[in-house]
Amino acid sequence: MEERKKLGLALLRKEFDKKLINKLPKPTKSQTDEVKADYRKGIRCQECGGWHHKDVVHLNYVGHAALTDRLLDCDESWFWEPVAFDQQTGLPKLDSNGGLWIRLTVCGVTRLGYGHPDGKSGGDAIKESIGDALRNAAMRFGAALDLWHKGDLHLPQPETKPTQEKQIVFLTVDQQTELSDLMTQANADKAGLMKYLSDSFSAEITSLAETPITAYKQIKSLLLQKIEKAKS
Asked: 2-148 — its CATH code?
């Protein structure tokens, strides 16, 4: 019995065939509002078959039928039950968001799951909450875990070695003096030059002493061009 339980739980973690993996569009509110205002802003999606904004992101997920089939393969006696019941109706109790907490039991092991209707209403909302809760609880057993995780869970993590900060070398005193003289000859706007350097290096530069040496040739060339232009 213990060996059968172990095999059943291991089967639940087995990857799903690619043909059983569906695409779920997850539009932002602004994308949804844009298509509602003008349906021409939407497209017939080649991935999921739905009509939505062209920039919508899709999530991979396993449908209710495929998950149920896997659960039956693992344990024919699997079952789920709500965590709480409504005392007045006797039906599963929903939270203030319309969400449903459940207990999923597979091979004698029970784990919690939560599902919500994702904007649906009526009977569709109930079905959506149940299906979502089952997927969420099954994930606690490892079912389709790779679809929930961004990346590969089982690749070894590369060792990270501390890297030395690259030391910035600034203009020498002689270079600063030379460029300062050229700025005077060119009647250059010092504030404008410092802003240009700050934007170029994505750092606040207020003087030649704070200017990286890599900018020396470029500054000199610009100033010489300005001087020659003034002479002509």
From this structure: 3.30.390
